[in-house]
Design a protein that fits this description.
Oligomer: single chain
Distance between the termini: 38 Å
Shape: globular
Number of strands: 0
Helix content: over 70%
Length: about 210
């Protein structure tokens, strides 16, 4: 129940609040472009690593996500608020992942794993096109972006934001997608666990120092 509350209520509300207060022109900021480039590079490394073994296209897609899809929601917002002093730094990353990366990844998984839940291909395509309206996380971020469009304030680059948010652990959504499509769920689970534990150890070490 707690997980459902977070997914359907808390996370969409948090995303809406953060994105609505963020200038969408920040997408053109140098650090956001650096983050996007780092995401592409990490994803390519994940793809290369996944091709070394006999994996299906769907499993390689999960490997790509495990390498390049950071936890910008549950951890990105509080980490940015604590370290950078402003949670809005997470908003461009959230929009980049939720509105651009996620639909592409889900489309690949949907096309390469067969009919999820017994649905026919046309039904899967219709479900995919309605994804932004059915997924509360995407809906929250999208509505926040619409509200933010009312005012434009271009913030200056900050290198720390790109480095910090690029180092976030693998998103738990990677495991959710992997399990839903039956594509390398163990790999996704391990990536989420190890990367999250690693962040916790680093945070503890810095705090102790």
């Amino acid at each position: 129940m707690l997980g459902r509350f977070v997914f359907h209520v808390a996370m969409p509300a948090a995303l809406f609040t953060v994105v609505a207060r963020t200038d969408l022109a920040s997408f053109a900021d140098t650090w956001v472009l650096a983050f996007a480039a780092g995401t592409v590079l990490a994803s390519l490394l994940g793809l290369l690593a996944g091709r070394r073994r006999e994996r299906s296209t769907a499993e390689r897609t999960v490997a790509v996500m495990a390498a390049g899809y950071v936890n910008s929601g549950n951890l990105g917002i509080p980490v940015a608020a604590q370290v950078l002093g402003d949670a809005s730094y997470a908003a461009p990353v959230l929009l980049f992942q939720v509105l651009l990366v996620t639909p592409v990844v889900l489309a690949v998984l949907d096309a390469t794993t067969g009919a999820a839940g017994g649905a026919t291909r046309p039904a899967r395509l219709r479900r995919l096109t309605r994804l932004p309206l059915r997924n509360p996380v995407i809906l929250g971020a999208g509505l926040g972006a619409l509200f933010s469009a009312a005012g434009w304030r271009l913030p200056g680059p900050q290198l720390r934001a790109a480095v910090l948010l690029s180092a976030l652990p693998t998103a738990q959504n990677v495991y959710v997608y992997a399990r839903l499509y039956g594509a390398a769920p163990v790999l996704a689970r391990s990536a989420v666990l190890v990367s999250t534990v690693t962040l916790s150890v680093i945070a503890w070490s810095l705090g102790g120092g």
